[in-house]
Amino acid sequence: MAYKITEECISCGACEPECPNQAISEGETTYKIDPDRCTECVGAHAKSKCAEVCPVDACVPDPARKEDKAALLAKWRKLHPGEEPAAGTY
Ligand code: SF4
Ligand code: SF4
């Protein structure tokens, strides 16, 4: 399930460089996540990095975008052709 950023975001920018898929960018009022690039960190990390670093817990799973691990891994493979996912992340 892709993550999303809520209105709690204070635009500190901490999450953006942590995303292994370049899914996070600065929006007009808050930072935002491109759901087509968010793999819930499957393929790179055991836990969602954005949620880990956000000081106000604004990075949360988006229930409107349910995906299982297989779908998230397939998304990761599309974004990283020729690479292998990190062990223990999928
Ligand atoms: S959960 Fe991971 S892949 Fe998704 S936006 Fe956050 S850091 Fe990026
Ligand atoms: S880390 Fe949290 S508060 Fe900072 S920009 Fe990202 S979502 Fe917003």
Give an overview of the whole structure:
- With 90 residues, this protein is an alpha+beta fold.
- The chain has one domain (3-79): Alpha-Beta Plaits, CATH 3.30.70.
- The chain is built from two helices and four strands, in the order E-E-E-H-E-H.
- The strands form two sheets. The chain has a two-stranded antiparallel ribbon with strand order 1-4. Strands 2-3 form a two-stranded antiparallel ribbon.
- A hairpin with a 4-residue loop joins strand 2 (24-26) and strand 3 (31-33).
- It is globular and about 35 Å long.
- The two termini are 13 Å apart.
- The mean pLDDT is 97.
- One iron/sulfur cluster is lined by residues 5, 9-15, 31, 53-54, 56, 58-59.
Key words describing this protein structure:
single chain; 90 residues; alpha+beta; Alpha-Beta Plaits; two-stranded antiparallel sheet; 2 helices; binds iron/sulfur cluster
Listing every helix as H and every strand as E from the N terminus to the C terminus, the arrangement reads EEEHEH
What's the CATH first level? Answer: Alpha Beta
Oligomer: single chain
Ligand names: iron/sulfur cluster
Number of domains: 1
Which percent range describes the beta-strand content?
5-15%
Kindly provide the radius of gyration, computed on alpha-carbon positions and rounded to a whole number of angstroms.
12 Å
Spatial shape:
globular
Major sheet details: 2 strands, antiparallel
